[in-house]
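ESCALATION

Customer reports they have been waiting on this structure for their group meeting. Please prioritize. Original submission:
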Amino acid sequence: MLSKLHKLVLAYSLLPGIGRVKLTKLLGEVGYTCSPSLVLLKSLLSASNYSAINQFLQSDGALFNRVVQLDNDMHNKDIGMVLVIDKLYPYLLRQIPDRPIYFFYKGHIEVLHKPQVAIVGSRKASKSSLRMAFSLSKELSMNGFAITSGLAFGIDCAAHSGALKGSGETIAVMGTGLDTVYPRQHGSIASSILENGCWVSEYIFGMKAIASNFPSRNRIISGLSVATIVVEARLKSGTLITARMAIEQNRDVFAVPGPIEYEGSKGCHRLIKEGAALIESSLDVLEELGHDISLGNSVCVEPDQNGAVLEVKPDIFNYLGFDSMSMDELSIISGIETNKLVPMLIELELDGRIECLADCYKRI
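Update from on-call: job pushed to the front of the queue and completed.
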């Protein structure tokens, strides 16, 4: 359950007209205290907002009831809340200028304190870019990095899946409340992430997917990470916004080159022209990061990308036919849990051996 201070900060943020900027200013004035000055609050808030907070401090009123309900709902869903002043707040995220005052999490919060690499890119990426994202993610995770991305279609999904095949430590930064998985098709992979990783969001329980939320959440993806890798991006895309944020946060930015005639390569090529490091493999990333991060005594790289999954591919592939089969059906007949099937199926899909239609899979 939330502490009194966490509940009060949550109450402030629920007041009409109090967004992130105003909340930051308010807390800068009154401080992080459970006993704020009523005189100061009265001078800083509108009459209606002051009345609501005053009632809240007396454990009364509609605002108090709403916070209590949110606290109960979050507790029932195993969702926690971290304030910027808490020890659990990640060091790197605290350094960015527009850091969130608080965020919510579900899963293993200790993963947020590991060195992280963000892998981002197009939602409609090419097969080669998806394979690259998967490979980079898997190998970097095997070398001590947690992989951070946004759970979106395309590169994000490939990045999370690669990490699940590696160390399993991956962080999904969401643009919704943590009671909602968006897109809904990623429910299985989202569940798999919770085994060794976690979900993060600055949006309150109950917040649905709103377009304006996603560019804002990108600063958290780059802010948590020591470096951001752009695998594929068009010139006008949210991915480039994430890269710009990483640059503004004084973080390393890496870009994967592609065919010059392909629109999805143009954003990466522009980043490279502007100073982003060109990378072709996880070894390039590890060399660029140098000795700033402890990677252990050896570097783990798969010598043969296709051979790395041959142990599991034939078994799963042989269960599939040319008629569509749902993941639940495949889990029943194979005896493999759905959360373990997700990365296997995605890797088969990236190899062009199966396709996914309406959450069902079949051979090609």
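Sent to customer with the following note: Confidence is low (pLDDT under 50) at residues 291-298, 304-314.
Escalation resolved.
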